[in-house]
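Reply to thread "Modeling small-molecule complexes from scratch"

Following up on the discussion above, here's a worked example others can learn from. I took a protein sequence and the SMILES for pyridoxal-5'-phosphate and predicted the complex. Inputs first:
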Amino acid sequence: MLACALGRAGARGSNRSMIPNQRHLFELPDDVAYLNCAYLSPLMKAVKNAGSEALARRGRPWEITARDFFTTSESTRALFARIINAHPDDIAIVPAVSYGIATAVRNVPLASGQTVVLLAEQFPSNVYAWREAARVTGAEIVTVPRPAHGDWTRAILDVVDERAAAVALANCHWTDGGLVDLVRIGARCRELEVPLVLDLTQSAGVLPFDVAAVQPDFAVAASYKWLLGPYSLAFLYVAPRWQRGEPLEHNWIARQRSEDFAGLVDYQDDFQAGARRFDVGEQSNFQLLPMAEAAMRQILDWGVTAIAETLAQKTASIAQRAGELGLGVASAKQRAGHFVGLRFDGGVPAGLLEKLSTAKVCVSVRGDSVRVTPHLYTTDADVDRLFNVLASVL
Ligand SMILES: Cc1ncc(COP(=O)(O)O)c(C=O)c1O
């Protein structure tokens, strides 16, 4: 049974910028319908090659200079910055979303009587650190319930008030793509002077996002989903107003003049510029950064808006076919264009997971919903295979 069929996961279309199918850039067998990018993206051949070359190069340390500890981290930082319209100085390199959120939690003050606003069933990396901080400070976690009307933005605005010390959200819900209008939420947070902390893992690289429009305080995204990159790498945006904050740890490379290897024991109190003080130790990550770099170059080459529009067309046709089968699907306005959550009255039918697995159709299942997340490698044949299986159990 394919593991991917068992995972429990918890500017719309004109033809103008439709990107033709890009399956040739990936190594996807024809008999696998991989509709599970929200779980773990497949790797492009160029990304795998970048990883292989990086590993081979790491085997030749005599070719690795002090400068090389900074070059790829700087170019990768800059590429992620372009994806979210930030400045490279505002990006820290971190190993996971949990690390980025922990950095935000370390810096955002909480106190008894204040609240932290989270979404119902939010991904745990943007929950546990807040819960722990709330336990220690006496602040209260307020969870926005899943709105029956489907409008997360309205539901969040109903809950955020003067008591909020932090609002910690995503651009779209990881379980079914339920969309949050972060421009409106950002404006409300600024009005109340509440820090806005975002987990963009299920949206960066696939849904246009502009830090200038949203003005978050912190925003983090893992590389291994819609950024099409390696596991164990993430990028953290830190707004300039927090850039004199406390890093989680004190590594040498985040300190000033760390480029001068001969002078490293001339200890420095000051940090490298901008968000670099929040970089994880060993941010130079010789194996993974070249992979992330290759992936983000391709994403920028396609263009995030064009990716979003292309995937919105794919999911619109999936949603339409699902509706014809009698399945529940959120309206296109209320879900991100790269997600479709298929809901079954009375729960996921018996045998569906096994049949999907046998047919090598990879999706994620959560509660009574099947999460379908295509990318540019998804073909009509993949979608047909999904619907053949669905039709056989309904
Ligand atoms: C919304 C979201 N955030 C974060 C992650 C991963 O978090 P971390 O990097 O802390 O493992 C996932 C993984 O599924 C996710 O869906």
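What I'd highlight from this example: The domain at 52-301 is CATH 3.40.640.10 (Aspartate Aminotransferase; domain 2). The first strand starts at residue 33 and ends at 34. Questions welcome below.
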